[in-house]
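Q: Structure tokens for this one, please.
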Amino acid sequence: MPLARAEESNDALLERLQRGAFRYFTEYANAENGLVADTSRPGSPCSIAVVGFALSCYPIAVERGWMSRSEACKRTLRTLQFFVASLQGQQTDATGYRGFYYHFLDMSGGRRIWQCELSLIDTALLLAGVHLAALYFDRNDEESTIRTLAQELLVRADWAWALTDRETLAQGWKPETGFLHYGWEGYNEATILYILAIASAAHPIPAESFDRWKFSYQWENLLGIDTLYSGPLFTHLFSHAWIDFRGIQDQFMREINFDYFRNTQNVVAIQREYAARNPRGFAAYGRDLWGITAGDGPSNEERVLHPRDRRFYGYMARGVPFGPDDGTIAPWAMLATLPFGPEHALRGTRHLLARFPQFVQATASRADSMPARSRAMGSGSRRDGTVSTRGCL
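A: Here is the predicted structure, written as tokens:
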């Protein structure tokens, strides 16, 4: 795959990278049930959040000429049919319970694996894609079936059941032990979760639950920049994939004359400033190479490097400025901030392509493109060249 060329226009570069990244949803999907793998590694299970992003990207692919409307309709229909018919119950190998779904599912049968949790946030990302599909496919015939199935899935989710005694939403549930003993603390990607729960037509939660969650917000000045704090970059991006927050203010934002879109712009500025200061002295960090977020890293082992001892992590929710930071940059992250500052996103992406051609070549062998997606839909790349959506899901 050719690197970014100086003469290549921004539109051409974006078309090439985004179309290449979209192929993940077709190359690593089960065409029979619509499930999409969490990573490109052999045997990887499905992540229901990835399915939500896939459902959201099919309409984009249609509009950009990457996929026919009939093909997108068929893929969407198979996916919704699977989830509507999937086993809902307290069985330990079910697909879901009370309208929610387990984070990781077997790619073939769609049953729970790894004793993972019934995940509220990943169900929310899935249902956001379901909701988008219902809005986009507005014609008759098969498309009317999509709308019917989508409505069935949306009303099935029993959000009120998932309220804790503090009247905030739990993070998850397991049939073996019940609700997880922790909830959502501080600002993060749960914005889309609360909005879907409050807006539910069948099992809504009180609007006051959102206010109770906001009690844990942290408004800070970091590196000279005001921000509603959340460390990993992806937590500032996900909800914006479906909601345009420009000019929308809740009570918290009205009091500080701000909004969530501008907050993410400030987060980008903090990421760039942190990388420029590079307090831990990692190679290549700079204003045009940043993107510290959740994702796979080099290893879980401790390694000793000159001039100081450092610990490197495998999968970790990295963040700035408080860390953890082990020098791992998510290559998708800069381009994913495109809506919040095209200049920084594009300049950083071009710098990455030029500075690390070995990454591009390794990724191209598996995904036919650098894994970068606009609108907060990202993937990461491991040293073995495989592509992973675990970088942000």
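A few notes: The chain is about 40% helix and 10% strand. Residues 362-393 have pLDDT under 50 and may be disordered.
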